[in-house]
Amino acid sequence: MKSIFSVMILAGLVACGPAQNDPGPGGVTVGEAKALDEAAEMLDERNAPPDLTENMTAAPADSE
Q1: In whole angstroms, what is the distance from residue 33 CA to residue 25 CA?
Q2: Residues 18, 36, 29, 14: what is their CA dihedral angle, to the nearest 10 degrees?
Q3: For residue 19, which of 32, 11, 31, 27 has the smallest C-alpha distance?
Q4: Separation CA 29–CA 20 (nearest Å)
Q5: Residue 26, Cβ neighbours under 10 Å: how many?
Q6: What is the per-residue pLDDT across 5-38, written as a single tens digit (0 to 9) for each?
Q7: What's the gap between Cα 45 and its chain centre?
Q8: φ/ψ (deg, to 5) at 29
Q9: Which residues, 6 or more positions from 20, have their beta carbon under 8 angstroms from its beta carbon?
Q10: Is the pTM of this model over 0.90?
Q11: Which one of 34, 47, 62, 64 is separated from 11 by 20 to 30 angstroms, measured CA to CA?
Q12: What is the DSSP letter of 7?
């Protein structure tokens, strides 16, 4: 009974995702890679082109 319980605990631990300090892509840790991805998303949002439809106004009609 104890061996079954031990195997279940071990299987549960193996199913967990990588730890924050495990090696990740490009020689950085998993936590650092996540932080870099979030920073890249923020930069992309900040550098996104403005929505041109908000700035469009009707041209005044000539009243001659």
Answers
A1: 7
A2: 0
A3: 31
A4: 7
A5: 8
A6: 777 777 776 666 677 777 777 788 888 888 999 9
A7: 12
A8: -75, 165
A9: 29, 30, 31
A10: no
A11: 34
A12: H
